[in-house]
Amino acid sequence: MGMPSPRDLQLPEGPTIRRMGFGAMRITGPGIWGDPADREAARALLRRVVELGVQLIDTADAYGPETSERLIGEALAPYAEGVLIATKGGLVRPADRSWQRDARPEHLRAACEASLRRLQLERIDLYQLHAPDEKVRFADSVGELARLRDAGKIGMVGLSNVDVAQLAEARAIVPIVSVQNRFNYADRQHEPVLEACERAGIAFLPWYPLATGDLARPGGSELTEVARELGATPGQVALAWLLHRSPVICPIPGTSRVVHLELNLAAERLELTDEQMRRLG
Question: What pTM, to 2 d.p., does this model score?
Answer without folding.
Answer: 0.95
